[in-house]
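@channel sequence for tomorrow's demo:
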Amino acid sequence: MGVENYITFVVATLLFVVTPGMDTIFVLNKSIGKGKRSGMYATFGVNSGILMHTLFAALGLSVLIAKSEFVFAFIKYAGALYIMYLGLVSLKKRKEFSTEITQDIKGGRSKSDFWSGFLNNVLNPKVALFFLAFFPRFIAPDQMDNPVPFMLLGLTYAVMGVSWLLILTVCAGTFSRKFIANPRARIALHTGSGLVFILMGITIGCT
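structure tokens (generated this afternoon):
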């Protein structure tokens, strides 16, 4: 299949997946704040973004993005603005939390969490650069132009990511009901997550 040292790749991927990052914070925020359903949708959205980056890498689009300063800057700032927007929405809606939970339980807003997770990942060009630096280390030199090994590694990464984030979702989702009954905790969660997303957006835009 063109893949080398697959076991090493799996071990390295496991370390990357369990290391807390923006995706982890995003999914935990949805799971605790809106329940397991939202956390699951967010999980699949984030990892669909991983598969999209994998497709970009397999088709060579990530290389074009990395070489084009304009395209890279556009995606970077678009991603930074979107993440900051999520933070501002979280701050704005912190007092409307209980209503949001009720709608989520009925399935009214869960699908939007999928697309939020998807865009949160796709609009981060650093993920594309990470894959360009990480995946080729486990692909045979004569298979670099073959999209199959890229897709195999990307699928493995996504499956492991989904598995880990679903575990976190189930664990964190058990606390969502307690937050519904505690106004102070709801406000603290939305305020804290909102500020974290804004800071992350600023960090992405400035680096």
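heads up for whoever presents: Confidence is low (pLDDT under 50) at residues 98-108.
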